[in-house]
DNA sequence: TTGTATGCGTTATCAT
DNA sequence: ATGATAACGCATACAA
């Protein structure tokens, strides 16, 4: 056989119809005689014909492509987001083109430009910085896009984010309810608004119980840095009875360091992590963690994007997705619930998780 | 501004040159006067022009697209592979389109067909089954492709796989050297050749020391199934002194079950896992594990694919990438090295890791 | 060095 | 219900 690809013409001649008819049958368009439609389909499958997307897109102007740009393809959170998005889009015939910015402003700009050359129907981006300066590149082309996970409150774009603040408030409540008031909030960096929100949620809950804000510690992005910063902090301060770690990586780093210095969880210290992954179930003890609803995050993003793809003119919308505290074995009760404002120590101001916007 | 996209003609008229010249300048083709080139580039950036890929591909016949199909986008191993591949291809201007087959034969076929409509320059696929019946779909279009990670030995295609057999042989040696001879090899399923290879490596090493093959146990794909199968097996058999778990998920499942029944690693049982992830470093104890070189896997795949993209006619090649045993704290010494064939118990038949093909 | 003309494979329009 | 034809935006061969 020749190296030439089978085109619509090959199918047409085999089915003894015109190219237009083949196109119509394949797209399920206009009414075609059952006989003709069968011949076309038979010819198409016999020849292994698949329409060329470049030609199709060029002519129709419709791309059926969604591009997704994340800081890092390896991070299980982003990988999960992409997987969930793929599930949404694939059902409607959209393909996904992925890119990663390596958490670098310049790379992000370049990758964005490259992805834009596809003339995608829509774009999903988890920006490197949550003020997302590179959005100018997309705005210029007037393409529909949704900012996912990292979106500064004042960002005038469609956005979908987890309810970070409410989630950590609930986690803090869980800790306080188990008698912990000496808590260290361990963060990766405060550069990201969603990380700041996570800390703010803890502060909220402490304030609600008449307590001053707990301390926080930035530990950076490698196991080594975490160990070093933790060691310094622990040498200079009284050991907290509980840790709240605001990312999966920080959770691993803190756990690793505690193990190294011979501290046992939850005997010597309790711990709640932000983000929930299967290993936390396997760990000893199993880790109590805040689960982000990745599926819901993706579904809402897709819904928002679809709306924007259909009707461009509507005010930007911001969706906040509730998280869920998964209670396992890494928090130990060390005393009665802590609540300075309540006479009855058993009172628990457990706010039901709400999807209220907080912009 | 209009909703129309800026095309090459807009740039041409603004720069007062022909479309052909714009094309040539943008592609860095034929010599152009510095003056003209500058005008073109100025116009292009002023207008925010990015060439339409559909049109470009249709005309040139060159796509600069690699499609990647994996069973599951969520699995950190596949996610890591995609990330590494993206690093390779992006450097040369190729974009990646991803798809997942959900480990289903029919879905795989459909997704493959969808990806093929892009007329990609190359395809990387981690098939659902390692005999990859769906490759007929690709063969029919004569597109270059490489099978990654799961490739039956007799598969007559380019393939890149980890040296599963050598890796587990080394792990088994490590266990035997620490006095363990009652080992249970815990597998997900034996349907996949690479899983069978992992078991075979252990058998190799046992045979090399004059020992009969150790038992193995298939535990399936959920935590619940793992717990159930493990419970049944442990009730019926003497408890092994060590476990060798052949996938990340199985490692988590076994660890979780051991924790639940109150067995401590490595005090009550030692453990080596196949696949190494950051959480294993954070776990207590840190888990000794076999690390697959994901970067190398991806690089070799890309190299093979490039070769195939350039020169179609050469016999299929199979590359085997060595793994590495990362020794941490989950294996305890319980006695002298076990080696029935050696008079000196200290002898260790440690074969240097080799990239030899074993097809 | 630059411009003109052509065609890639498909879908949309219009004619039949 | 089906066919003929044009056009999408670009890259290329060739003319100038």
Question: Helix and strand layout, with pairings?
Answer:
The structure is a homodimer of 359-residue chains.
Chain A: H1 8-15, H2 19-26, H3 34-47, H4 53-60, E1 65-70, H5 76-90, E2 95-100, H6 105-116, E3 122-125, H7 135-141, E4 145-148, E5 159-162, H8 164-177, E6 183-187, H9 193-208, E7 216-218, H10 223-236, E8 242-245, H11 248-260, E9 270-274, H12 278-282, E10 288-291, H13 294-310, E11 318-321, E12 324-326
Parallel strand pairs in A: 1-2, 1-3, 3-4, 4-5, 5-11, 6-7, 6-8, 8-9, 9-10
Antiparallel strand pairs in A: 10-12
Helix pairs in contact in A: 1-2, 1-3, 5-13, 8-9, 10-11
The structure holds a DNA duplex (16 and 16 nucleotides).
Note down, in words, how this protein is organized:
2 copies of one chain form a homodimer. The first copy, chain A, has 359 residues and is α/β, with parallel strands linked by helices. Chain A contains 13 helices and 12 strands. The first copy, chain A, has helices spanning 8-15, 19-26, 34-47, 53-60, 76-90, 105-116, 135-141, 164-177, 193-208, 223-236, 248-260, 278-282, 294-310; strands at residues 65-70, 95-100, 122-125, 145-148, 159-162, 183-187, 216-218, 242-245, 270-274, 288-291, 318-321, 324-326. Chain A has a 6-stranded parallel beta sheet with strand order 2-1-3-4-5-11, sandwiched between helices. Chain A has a 6-stranded mixed beta sheet with strand order 7-6-8-9-10-12, with helices on both faces. In chain A, α1 crosses α2 and α1 packs across α3 (34-47). Chains A and B meet through α4, α5, β2, α6 and α7 of A and α4, α5, β2, α6 and α7 of B. The structure holds a DNA duplex (16 and 16 nucleotides).
């Amino acid at each position: 056989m020749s190296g030439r690809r089978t085109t619509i013409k090959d199918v047409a001649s085999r089915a003894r119809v015109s190219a237009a008819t083949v196109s119509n049958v394949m797209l399920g368009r206009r009414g075609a005689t059952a006989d003709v439609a069968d011949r076309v389909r038979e010819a198409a499958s016999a020849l292994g014909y698949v329409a060329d997307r470049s030609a199709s897109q060029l002519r129709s102007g419709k791309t059926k492509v969604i591009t997704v740009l994340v800081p890092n393809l390896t991070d299980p959170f982003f990988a999960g987001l992409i997987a969930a998005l793929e599930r949404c889009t694939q059902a409607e015939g959209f393909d996904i083109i992925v890119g990663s910015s390596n958490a670098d402003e310049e790379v992000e700009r370049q990758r964005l430009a490259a992805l834009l050359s596809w003339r995608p129907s829509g774009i999903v981006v988890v920006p490197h910085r949550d003020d997302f300066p590179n959005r100018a590149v997309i705005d210029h082309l007037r393409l529909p896009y949704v900012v996912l996970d990292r979106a500064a409150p004042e960002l005038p774009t469609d956005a979908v984010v987890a309810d970070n603040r409410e989630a950590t408030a609930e986690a803090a409540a869980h800790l306080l309810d188990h008698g912990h008031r000496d808590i260290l909030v361990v963060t990766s960096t405060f550069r990201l608004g969603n990380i700041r929100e996570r800390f703010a949620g803890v502060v909220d809950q402490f304030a609600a119980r008449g307590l001053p804000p707990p301390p926080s510690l930035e530990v950076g992005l490698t196991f080594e840095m975490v160990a070093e910063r933790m060691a310094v902090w622990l040498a200079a301060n009284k050991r907290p009875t509980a840790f709240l770690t605001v990312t999966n990586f920080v959770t691993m780093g803190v756990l690793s360091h505690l193990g190294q210095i011979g501290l046992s969880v939850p005997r010597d210290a309790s711990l709640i992590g932000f983000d929930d992954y299967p290993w936390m179930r396997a760990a000893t003890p199993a880790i109590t963690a805040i689960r982000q609803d990745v599926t819901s995050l993706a579904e809402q993003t897709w819904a928002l994007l679809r709306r924007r793809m259909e009707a461009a003119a509507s005010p930007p919308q911001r969706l906040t997705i509730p998280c869920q505290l998964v209670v396992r074995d890494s928090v130990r009760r060390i005393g009665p619930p802590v609540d300075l404002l309540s006479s009855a120590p058993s009172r628990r101001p457990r706010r039901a998780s709400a999807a209220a916007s907080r912009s």
